[in-house]
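Hello support,

Our group uses your service weekly, and this is the first time we've seen a run hang past the timeout. The protein is Sugar ABC transporter permease. I'm not sure whether the cause is the sequence or the server load. Input pasted verbatim:
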Amino acid sequence: MVLQSFKPPTSAIQTPPDLSWGGFTLDNFKKLLDGNIWVWTSNSLIVAISGMLGNVILCSMAGYAFAKKQFPGKRILFWAIVSIMMTSTQIIMVPLFMQIRDMGLLNTYWALLLPILVSPLAVFLSKQFMQTIPEDLLEAARMDGCSEWRTYWNIIVPVSMPVLAIVGIFGFITQWNDFLWPLLATESRNMRTLQVGLASMQLQNVDYGLVLAGATWTMAPIVILFVAFQRFFVKGLTIGAVKG
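Update from on-call engineer: The timeout came from a worker crash unrelated to the input. Re-ran successfully.
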């Protein structure tokens, strides 16, 4: 994909494909940058960063409540949230679309953001990690006069940075790569995210060099993120799975 994005469009449809290292050109990227790619990229960044922040803030609060607080229906509510993790996204897509439509939010940033601000997986990971925080630490904070908010902000958040980093990274990647919901929730060309915009480039008279350049552009942030935070990805696969 990366190799063909720097070659003429005809190179990608040759049989066999041209995998040589010669004949490089920047024409595909010049055409890509002259289009709506900047608008689509900014939309994807807004959605992905907002989803990441929502997951980190709201889900960590929920995880703290489930891990360290006692309230009626706590166990039932937690397992209800966990059960959502086992529910296919496609099952709730139609009622979610109807709800957003009835609220008059279709084709707006609110339509893209509201369904992604809280993730059941992020709540589960936060709760599992925060259960390991010693209760004595919280009792000491309360004895020193810390309010509930200050205990959360000054004790829970710093101690939970490993899991919050995982939640943030997974949240960003999930929303950056999302295709189906942005496709349903947006109509105008200027509201499309990068994934939907890239797909629209393939509807007619496909310019394969341009499409492959767009795919390379879309992939680059995720590769950089993975290289920079690889240890958090590995830790995210095992967090909460082993006690002790």
